[in-house]
Specification:
Layout lengths: L1 E4 L4 E4 L1 H7 L3 H4 L4 H4 L1 E4 L9 H8 L3 E2 L4 E4 L5 E12 L5 E10 L1 H23 L3 E5 L5 E4 L1 H7 L3 H4 L11 H12 L4 E9 L5 E13 L2 E11 L1 H24 L1 E7 L4 E4 L1 H6 L11 H7 L5 H14 L3 E8 L5 E12 L5 E10 L1 H23 L2 E7 L9 H7 L3 H4 L10 H17 L3 E9 L4 E13 L5 E10 L1 H16 L1
Length: 499
């Protein structure tokens, strides 16, 4: 508090005024009020008319304008509010004025804090990444944030002021939500479907409760989480797993996951079936698997496991398993160890593929090939066909078995490479002449015999086959092995010469 005389000179300061202005009573006494009580507008930084002056001039109580700052003697700036009142003597004459003011820094700080908090809350509401809205006790939407508008595609004018049920696909769902909220419940992850402006729907989870004041329903506080993509992904994952299961069943593929730390080996039902076990019958231990592997193959299978546990590399091994009915089946295993950063094996994951049918088919093929090659080794005729140009264009199994040439080797005119080098050009000339004249072909020479790894004498004959219009379709021929008759003939001739 400061008092002045009628001319506006300071008469006294109390201790609070001394602390705020930085002037002592001794320094300030007799000084013009403006020299001690220096005030400006906080925003414009311009001097503010002193209320004490107005009180002295007009003889009335005057309040201080808003946003007034007191500049202390040491330059400190303090936000203040104050008022000035005239002082009159016993006869009512103006004797001076009294100026009452206080530091409102703490109040200003609190007010600023409240305003900042309100701005932050408003910003949080409006710019939150999740949808937010308020509805009153009647279900009317009071407020909505941009995230929810973007989610559903409406403008604020199209959304606020409408009943919330207009945007729910299922009326019974929003009725249940409002009933529970009105009863004081808090909802967590309540599933619902919302209607978008474009006609599509969004699947959401709602978290909500009510703001109550003195027992009165003020508004809800509803968070809307869009889970449309998540639910779609979950559905696709379920479909994918179903497709994978069907594919595993069709392809006879089973998977396993051996948790080494826990000692638990989990198998899919498809894998159990490959080992002749009913679903859930596997004992889920590594030892149980080892006992199912054929004793002769067990060391090789375990060596593959040890290899991946040591290196972490993917490994493929093949082994046989013995079913409970004692039948033998073939398995191909592909697996890999998963290690900790320190290199300790944690898990072994992989798949098994039932290749029993493949192994049986391969064995049948091997036996068939052996029978065929055995048969070829004793037959003397090798049938063959060519196209109209005299080239081998179709598979020639008899030729392949007799000469050992592969289809790639005998294709086209590659068959000539199976002829003895000394006979090759002569036979090719005879063949070219027959092609040109389209007459019967006959030649003799030596042909490589793969089963005995020697050149053997042969006689080749071929005839052209014509189409109905007289054009040449193909050649059909044989190579007859005459090695034994030739040898007999030579032996007989030599014998006759001796006699």
């Amino acid at each position: 508090m400061i008092t002045t005389d009628a001319e506006g000179r300071i008469a006294s300061l109390n201790a609070v005024a001394e602390a705020l202005t930085g002037w002592t009573q001794r320094e300030a006494e007799g000084q013009p009020l403006d020299a001690v009580f220096h005030i400006i507008n906080e925003q414009t930084r311009q001097p503010v008319e002193n209320p004490a002056v107005q009180a002295l001039e007009h003889g009335v109580i005057v309040g201080l304008a808003n946003h007034t700052v007191l500049i202390a003697k040491d330059g400190r700036e303090l936000p203040i509010d104050d008022s000035a009142a005239p002082i009159r003597d016993d006869e009512g004459r103006l004797a001076g004025c009294v100026l009452v003011f206080r530091d409102i820094s703490a109040r200003r700080k609190a007010e600023n804090s409240v305003r900042r908090s309100e701005r932050e809350l408003a910003d949080l509401f409006e710019n939150a990444s999740v949808g937010l809205h308020w509805v009153d006790a009647n279900g009317i939407i009071l407020r909505v944030n941009q995230a929810e508008l973007d989610l559903l595609g409406y403008t604020r004018e199209e959304y606020v002021g409408r009943h919330i049920s207009e945007f729910h696909v299922h009326a019974n769902v929003i009725e249940d939500i409002l009933r529970r909220l009105t009863a004081g419940e808090t909802l967590h992850a309540y599933p619902a479907w919302l209607r978008c402006k474009d006609g599509l729907t969004k699947q959401v989870l709602i978290n909500s409760n009510v703001l109550w004041e003195d027992g009165k329903f003020i508004h809800t506080r509803c968070f809307t989480h869009d889970v449309t993509d998540l639910r779609r992904a979950e559905e696709e994952l379920r479909d994918s797993r179903e497709r994978l299961q069907m594919a595993q069943e069709a392809a006879r593929v089973g998977a396993f996951d051996w948790n080494i730390e826990r000692g638990v080996n989990i198998w899919t039902p498809e894998l159990e079936a490959m080992y002749g076990l009913a679903p859930g019958a596997f004992a889920r231990t590594q030892t149980a698997w080892e006992e199912l592997v054929h004793p002769e193959d067990r060391p090789r299978a375990l060596a593959g496991v040890e290899q991946t546990l040591r290196t972490g590399d993917a490994v493929e091994e093949e082994w046989r398993v013995i079913w409970p009915d004692r039948s033998v089946h073939w398995i191909v295993g592909r697996f890999r160890a998963i290690k900790s950063p320190a290199g300790t094996p944690l898990r072994l994951i992989g798949v098994n593929i039932d290749v029993t049918e493949h192994e049986l088919a391969e064995e049948a093929t091997r036996q068939s090939d052996e029978r065929y090659r055995s048969l070829v080794s004793i037959i003397t005729d090798v049938p063959w066909t060519t196209d109209a140009a005299g080239s081998f264009s179709q598979p020639q199994p008899a030729w392949e078995a007799y000469t050992g040439q592969t289809p790639e080797q005998y294709r086209g005119y590659g068959w000539a490479e199976a002829l003895h080098p000394d006979d090759r050009e002569r036979i090719k000339e005879l063949w070219a002449a027959a092609l040109h004249s389209r007459t019967l072909y006959q030649s003799e020479g030596r042909l490589w015999h793969a089963p005995t790894q020697q050149w053997r004498q042969f006689v080749a004959k071929a005839a052209p086959l014509l189409n109905a219009d007289g054009t040449l379709r193909e050649w059909v021929g044989t190579c007859t092995d005459v090695e034994e008759p030739k040898r007999s003939e030579i032996a007989l001739r030599e014998s006759e010469e001796q006699f």
